[in-house]
Amino acid sequence: MRLSRLLTAATFVTCVASMTNATADEAAKPQSFTRQSARDILAESRKIVSGHGIETTLKIPINGTEQWISVRGHDTRNPILLYLHGGPGAPDMPLAYTFQTPWEDYFTVVQWDQRGAGKTFAANDPAALASTMTVDQMTADAAEVVSYLRRTYHKQKIFLLGHSWGSVPGVRLAEAHPDWFYAYIGAGQIANMRESEAIGYRFALDEARKQNNQKAVHDLEAIAPYPPPDGKPIDFASIGTQRQWLQYYGGLAWGRTGFESFENAEKISPDYSDEDFAAIDKGSGFTMSHLLGPLTDADFTKTTHFDLPILLFLGRHDYSVSHDVAARWFKTLKAPAKKLVWFEDSAHLMMQEQPGRFLKHLVDDARPYAVKAGDAAPDDIVER
């Protein structure tokens, strides 16, 4: 008996020593940590494992094209929220992991790479798309995505969130099909883009003069008057200059001089490959070449009547799309219910700049419309 115990102990010590040596050998080897390693870790950490959950990324046929969506949520009994990204041509699918994961407890969230953007750009022939790159077509695509979601997931209504450029098709859909949506949520809402451009230009030039930034002053004065008078189109070079300095002074992300930190986060997105990421810039250039004019001419000042609840989420420091123009437009709106929420420490990217507050207002101000209709997973049970 004693001999058996001694042999067992000896074997155990030998095994431990062997394992220790092996571990030491492994530790001594150089470990390569790649961009893909980071993506894999993030994908695993946000994997949806709940019984009622959904986690899928797929191509769907939309008006003669193939377009990509991701659908994520911990309980498909929750309401669907369709996110219309900005740009145009700037998908938020690769950045969604930085802010969206908590939303998935309360909504089934759908990110969609629009015609000409990201994964969808890579999945289609640009030459075949060129003649279709219009606001009417983008709105028709959005309508088809909504119809697909309602049909596939058996939802009478969903939530529609339009951010920046996405608020253009967003407003048009909300006005045309109020019966499809519990509410329309406009974030960084476009109301009158030419007026917004003028305000952003003055903001950037004023800041440059205050800080005696002669380079910025020279660049901005060189494009005056901005925007061009009499409805003349804004060219790429001029809007690029305005955006460069507007961003530098925090008009895109408050307290930051540009978009680099968010762009770097895209590079390790669990939802995008290197090829997908490369398609962002190609798609953005392609899309803007067709939609810059319609974007800068967007004007909803005469669109004031809605037959569904309207929520506006505005960053107090937003000069990419003027918070002031949007707030003035909001005052003119007639709707069954409306609410304006200010994000005091944000500019244009409030869902990333203040993600906790953004989620709180989605849950407190939007979700109750679905809960009232019975379109929500049961609340957590609290025992006392």
Question: How would you explain this protein's 3D organization?
Answer:
With 384 residues, the protein is an alpha/beta fold. Helix content is 46%, strand content 14%. It has 14 helices and 8 strands. Strand 5, helix 6 and strand 6 form a beta-alpha-beta unit.
Report a brief summary of the structure:
The protein has 384 residues and is α/β, with parallel strands linked by helices.
Roughly how much helix do the residues carry, as a percent range? 40-55%
- Give the CATH architecture of one domain: 3-Layer(aba) Sandwich
Instruction: Briefly note the CATH topology name of one domain.
Output: Rossmann fold
Number of beta-strand segments:
8
Query: How confident is the prediction overall: mean pLDDT?
Result: 92
Q: Which structural class do the helices and strands define?
A: alpha/beta
List the helices and strands and how they pair.
Blueprint: H1 2-28, H2 35-45, E1 54-62, E2 65-73, E3 80-84, E4 108-112, H3 118-122, H4 126-129, H5 135-152, E5 158-163, H6 167-176, E6 181-187, H7 193-210, H8 214-221, H9 236-248, H10 260-266, H11 274-296, E7 310-315, H12 323-332, E8 338-343, H13 350-353, H14 355-372
Parallel strand pairs: 3-4, 3-5, 5-6, 6-7, 7-8
Antiparallel strand pairs: 1-2, 2-4
Helix pairs in contact: 5-6, 7-8, 7-9
